[in-house]
Amino acid sequence: MTEPEQEQENSEQENESKTVVLLGREDLLTPEERQYREIYIPEWKGKIRIRAMSAKEGLAFTKEVNKPGAEGMFLAFVASVCDDEGNLLFLSPDDAIVEQLKVRSLSGFILIQDEVLKLNRLGDYALEALLKAKNG
């Protein structure tokens, strides 16, 4: 992030903190609305929808990604791709499903993986873990 971009982000955060109410216990224990993003995959000639992970899902995801032999881009795909109502299309990274997915183009999965990491604000450490797991 460039310095002007960082300054703008800091300014936006300061403005938000001035107008946003302080959350109480009940507010924090109530799940918020998930964020969604639609991604057009040119190689697949269509789009998919991904959803943000809850903290619980994110912890499980990072734990799985860090296991030896983990196939991170497929884990990211399975953990985030959902239907128009927000329901995950795949309930687990089942080996048979992953094998079927592997017929799709690699560049599509890389694009999805990048968007999943961005949407969930998983930093470079997560990408590094995915690459490390992939290269094993």
N-C termini distance: 30 Å
Helix share bin: 55-70%
Could you say which overall geometry the principal axes of the C-alpha atoms support? globular
What are the low-pLDDT stretches, counting only 5+ consecutive residues below 50?
none
User: In order across it, which strands form the biggest sheet?
Assistant: 1-2-3
Q: What is the CATH C-level name?
A: Alpha Beta
Outline the biggest β-sheet.
3 strands, antiparallel
Mean pLDDT across the residues is: 84
SSE string, helices as H and strands as E: HHEEHHEHHH
Structure summary, number of beta strands:
3
- What is the total number of structural domains? 1
Number of H- or I-type helical stretches: 7
CATH architecture: 2-Layer Sandwich
Which class do the helix and strand fractions yield? mainly alpha
Task: Give me the Rg, rounded.
Answer: 17 Å
Strand content: 5-15%
